[in-house]
Write a structure and sequence with these properties.
This protein has 402 residues and is α/β, with parallel strands linked by helices. 41% of the residues lie in helices and 14% in strands.
């Protein structure tokens, strides 16, 4: 067996199951799960209705590179959404089966383990796939704490020059999972300049980019900022996008990788051996999804309605941070986050994710401690009920402490 498998931490939901084991919550309360970031809004009708009409290609092996039509639909969407003028569908876009598998596979393809000290930087807290990908690729990790004092954005100025010299890859996530924090123009520009100076790759996970609070200021993207800097070849810049959150289609397993043509070509070569071509009917439905914005707008409005309701209920009893994007609330807890989540389940039959399950201890501390993540993916009714239960739970805690 690969000895580096032993380095993998238990997945957050495995730890959560152990945390809840043996507890009997109140039977009169229906269970509400706000722990998993799995969209519950309906998949658009036009995708479901077109599924059976697009199965003609099942008799052939699909191309790893995807169809010309799919890559062009993605290029057109990038041009509309991020105002890109230079994206080339034939050289700079590669369809993938969702961002999760691509984010994992990417590290395997780009890390040069022959180097004496290959480093990969990731935000802390973080999406667990980054960590597992790096460890199995044979590299070492540097965790960049995302603290409340810095609006939950990585402070790149705190990274030493030697770390940048040893860095081969950095994962970023904007809007961030779990905090919802969004990188601004200045932060993106700083990171791009560092990547060019020290020659490392930026892997920007942007799968939450289409869920945001303000219609006038959608989150920026890495390639968008690169172009604004005159970096028309997107050197060292790679983005990851998905239809899972944007179109409520996690089961479609459809996304794409785009950016630096040389890196895309190397990743394409890896993927021809990986055997991960997108099924043809998934490609056909993906074209339809990338071409339509009405369902995305409706999706975004539904999330914003839930945020407004939940925050209004919670704000009198607890500080609530809503980032500029994504569908999570990152809430600071009055007691240890693991204890908080366990007691909440025991008393209110609600499941939330402790922040420590999404972060690691560093010399500067653990930035996930005393935070919980709420995924507002359930219905408006369930989210409202969850907020009311959470408010009652916090009020009871305060009364006990008094």
């Amino acid at each position: 067996m690969n000895p580096r498998l032993e380095l993998l931490h238990a997945y957050p939901f495995e730890r959560l199951a152990k945390l809840k084991a043996g507890i009997s919550p109140p039977p009169e309360l229906a269970h509400i799960a706000l722990s998993i970031g799995e969209p519950k809004h309906p998949t658009p009708d036009f995708l479901c209705q077109n599924l059976s009409q697009n199965c003609a290609g099942l008799a052939q092996y699909p191309s790893t590179k995807g169809s010309d039509e799919l890559r062009q639909a993605i290029a057109d969407w990038l041009s509309r959404r991020f105002k890109l003028q230079n994206i080339q569908s034939d050289q700079q876009i590669l369809p993938v089966n969702g961002t999760r598998e691509a984010l994992f596979a990417f590290a395997q393809a780009v890390i040069d383990s022959r180097q004496p000290r290959p480093l990969v930087l990731i935000p802390n807290p973080f999406y667990q796939i980054y960590e597992g990908a790096v460890l199995l690729a044979g590299a070492d990790l540097v965790y960049l704490n995302c603290e409340k004092e810095n609006d939950f954005i990585c402070d790149f100025d705190q990274v030493s020059e030697q770390t940048w010299l040893d860095c081969q890859l950095i994962y970023i996530c904007s809007p961030a999972n779990p905090t919802g924090a969004v990188l601004n123009q200045t932060a993106f520009e700083k990171l791009i300049k560092l990547a060019l100076k020290y020659d490392f790759i930026i892997a920007s996970d942007e799968c939450y980019s289409e869920i945001y609070a303000n219609e006038q200021t959608p989150p920026l993207g890495l390639l968008e900022v690169a172009e604004s800097m005159g970096l028309n070849d997107y050197k060292n810049c790679i983005i990851f996008h998905s239809l899972s959150k944007r179109s409520n289609a996690p089961g479609l397993r459809s996304g794409f990788v785009a950016g630096d043509a040389d890196i895309i070509q190397a990743f394409f070569r890896y993927r021809t051996y990986h055997g991960c071509a997108m099924p043809p009917h998934h490609q056909a439905l993906s074209i339809l999804a990338w071409q339509d914005e009405q369902h995305v707008l409706a999706n975004r409005q539904a999330y914003n309605q839930k945020f407004d309701i939940v925050i209004k209920i919670l704000i009198p009893v607890i500080p609530v941070f809503r980032g500029d994007g994504g569908f999570y609330l990152w809430i600071e807890t009055p007691i240890d986050d693991i204890d908080f989540a366990q007691k909440l389940y025991s008393e209110q039959n609600m499941t939330v994710l402790p922040g420590q399950f999404l972060s690691r201890e560093t010399k500067q501390g653990n930035p996930g401690k005393k935070f919980i993540r709420l995924a507002l993916v359930a219905s408006i009714e369930e989210c409202t009920e969850a907020a009311q239960r959470l408010k009652q739970f916090i009020t009871n805690l305060e009364n006990i402490n008094e």
